[in-house]
Amino acid sequence: MGKVVFDTSMSLDGFMTAADQSAEEPMGAGGLRLMEWVMGPDPRGRELLEGWVANLGASIAGRRTYDTSLQWWGADGPSGNARRPLFVVTHAAPAESPDGGVYTFVTDGIERALEHAQAAAGDRDVTVMGGANLGRQYLAAGLVDEIQVHLAPVLFGKGTRMFEDVGTGHLLLEPIEVIETPVAVHLRYRIGRRDD
Description:
Blueprint: E1 4-11, E2 15-18, H1 36-39, H2 43-54, E3 56-62, H3 63-73, E4 86-89, E5 103-106, H4 110-121, E6 125-129, H5 132-140, E7 146-152, E8 159-161, E9 171-181, E10 184-194
Parallel strand pairs: 1-6, 1-7, 3-4, 3-6, 4-5
Antiparallel strand pairs: 2-8, 7-10, 9-10
């Protein structure tokens, strides 16, 4: 069985969305700046993403992330042409989803979504992606092996904080990898013991 990795892009001041989220700007005003490492002109970010997707067996996201990202993902999901399964944690499945899409909607909790994702992933990793609330739930439940943060060189000042009220006490993290690119620093940590 592979690792469970919580993966998110974040501003230097700890926000994973900017303020003033709307249907037109689901990541907040200027929030797409967090995704320049993969959507911008520098090819290094896309190369890194391809390497991580090669190790990916399945992903988990929350319903809000699904709803706001579907316009970019389409039927292939966040892994693009690799078409890895995405398990969406939700209270209710949407009335419609893309034909031939990689999406499965899980209505019976985060543990059940993880069971589905690990079964689909086999020996590859499962990524919990996007959604501060969902990420906090997985961290608080002790279900995450590693945290990967794509740190963007921007200060938002306000928005959605990722690591606020995580409910884990102190988590000691062991640095595994640091990769610097012109538009982000990619940090990967193994979760160690809790130090309450």
